Each structure stands twice: as C-alpha cells, then as structure tokens.
Amino acid sequence: MSDFPALPDINSDQVSVSVPNPKPLDILVFATEWAPRHGGLSTLNQKLCVALAATGRCRVVCYIPPESGETPREDRGVLLLPARAVPGFPASDTALLLRRPGFATLPRFQDFAPDFVVGHDDKTGPHALAACQDHFPSAKRVQFVHTEVYPLQGAKTHSSGQLTSAKACLASDLVREADLAVGVGPLLAEVAFGYGAKRELAYQLDPGFELSTCEVPLAANTQRRLNVLVIGRTKDPEVKGLERACVVLADVAAYVQHEVNLIIRGSDDQSQKHLSKLARTWNRKCPNLKIQPREFTVEKRELAQDWRAAHLLIAPSTVEGFGLVALEAAERGVPFLISNPSGFAKWLNSLDSSAFDRHVINPPGDEEALHDAWVDRITRIYRDPEGARRECRKTQGLLAPYTWERAANQLLDRLARL
Known about the structure:
Distance between the termini: 27 Å
Order of helices and strands: EHEEEEHEHHEHEEHHEHEHEHEHHEHHH
Strand order of the largest sheet: 3-4-2-1-5-6-7-8
C-alpha cells in the first residue's frame, strides 16, 4: 500500500463526520456535457454532482455548452446551466464556457455565489481557472485529475511528442496552482502530487459503489460458448489492449474448443473500420473467435443487453487512470478481470488483497507470463461461470460501504477545511 500522505483513510470504518458550515457551500462545476455521451469523465461528473447536491450541504451548478438546446433546469438537485450561445461559435464549443454564468434563472439559485469552482483535466480545467481569475476571484479552485499524460500518450500509436509535452505542461500548470487537486482513485492522486500539488492539497476521491437494481442473470451457457465484453471508447485500440484481448481469446477458444464471442462496445466512425478489419483477420486465424464491434452508446436498453449476455468483462488496457467500467461490472455482479496498471486495481489491493487476486491479472515475469495468466483466468471462468459470480458477490460486499454519499461527504469535509 502507498504511504502517500494526502490520501484520505478509505480503510476506516468510521463514517465521515460532517464539518459544520455557517451556510451551504456553493459549488460551480465546469463540464463538457451533462448526459454522459462521451465516456467515463462525464459519467463521474454527473454522479458526483448529484451526490454532492443530495447531501444538503451545498448547492451545485453544472455549467455546460448550449449544445443540448436545454434551458436551465434542475436535475436531482443540480442546476444545469447552459452557456449562452454566440453567433459564429458551434453550440458544442467549450469556449462558450468562458462567458460569465448567469445564475438568476431559478429562485433557489438567485443568490448563488461560488465558493468553489471545479474543472476536469484539460477539458474544462482552463475554463475553471479563467472563471476564478475573471469572474470569481474569491472562489477556491478545485482541479480534477482523470488521466496521466505521458503513459496515455505514449501508449498511442500516432502520438506526437510535442503534443504530449504540451499536454503534460498544461496538466501541471492546472494542478500546481489549484487550491485542491483531486485524483480519481489512488493512482491519480499520486499523479496529482507528481504534477506539483502540495502534499496536503492532493486528495484521493474514490468513485462511489452503487449496487445495481438491474438484475443481470447468469448468461445461458448451454452451448458452452463464452461471451466476453469490453466497454469503452475505442478511438485508440492499443490503449484499450484490444489486440492483446484478441490474442488471448484466440488461445482460449483453441483450448476449450468452443466459440468465444468478443463484444467490443465503444466504436465510432474513426475506429469502426479498424475493428472490422480486426474481426475479419481473427476470424480467418481462429474461426472459433467471433469479434463483434458495436457502436458506442449510452442507451440503457442496448447496454443492458450487453451486460445480460456477458459471462465476463475484461479490461486489458495498457494504461488506465481508474477504470470505471470494472466498478460497473462489480455493481452488476458480472465477473471481471482487469490489468494491474489501473487505479481500480490499486484501490482493490488497498482494501483487500484477496479481492485484488480475484480480479487483477498481475503475474511476475514477462509478456509471455502475462499472456498465460490471462488465458488461465478466462478459461477458469469459462469452466465455472457460477463460481465466478459467487466470487464477484464477495467483491460487492467489500465495496458496499464505499458509496457516493460517503465520497461526497468526505470531499465536502475536505473543502470545508481549505
């Protein structure tokens, strides 16, 4: 376990004690969208905003581009405030967030005066910084860290060294002068410190666990096929470890002598051509391996079908700041296996080493040992899917206390001490 001194004691059984405030805090959050149409960052932002508002200890405004065409409204206690459009600027342009927000839209928010301004990575971090400098000089700035620049850019095939350096400098600038730098999970909390945050101003936020109300029955396995699910944006297949997944599953299919379906949910126009070629190539090499690229979606019905069909979720990513999709698998009770370099793997290990061993592929040795470990663990789940579900239920019990309510209250406690 890391002895990184700024991290909250997530192993404590003591419930977070609220720090009394003379009035509820006002928190202004800059985001690229409210409905999470573009992946994990937006999902985390929405869940955190809702959890913060639900505590009753703060008012939360989420300031977004006017792309959705929405008028200001409340959603689960959060005021969604679209920026005002400007002729000549696309409605999705985050430059519109540089305009001063107009809070006098709903009676409950007419006297809203931000105590804290929140930005996410380079997506909205610069906008939060500008807002503090130009509009809210008395507010404190909170910078969320969702990615580690150098490993992420280095894992991409077509990464520019000059661009990577510029991104790293920006990340460091945004973190170094922030009043609080929040890393999502233990890995990114340490990254925030590495970017220049003072030890006492680098904070670890662990995403909340929500036991899913969606029943995910054990996928039928009467034909002895194995359905393996990968979920996530596939713009950079090498980062998601898709080639590794194909090589591993081809060996699994050859070993068990039955069909293995790899469902890849997350393609877009840019990656679909590559994934289709990948599917054809592997179908020729290994007829028992069927690769099914599916378009990225946030439609609950389509995603529910993916989860119901899955015997297993894998995240063989070469780089992963946290890995929300593994947390979602745990919430749904779907067995999952993940790579060791993820923040979620590090968090599991800090909670219970046996949970780490259940779900994390972490063999000593070289790439061949890693490959063999993936093949062995997936084959075991193929042979005993119900046993894998029982193991996943143990992990659900371990994670159950770490709710979004707990995460929100702990963050508010820390903000109140700034």
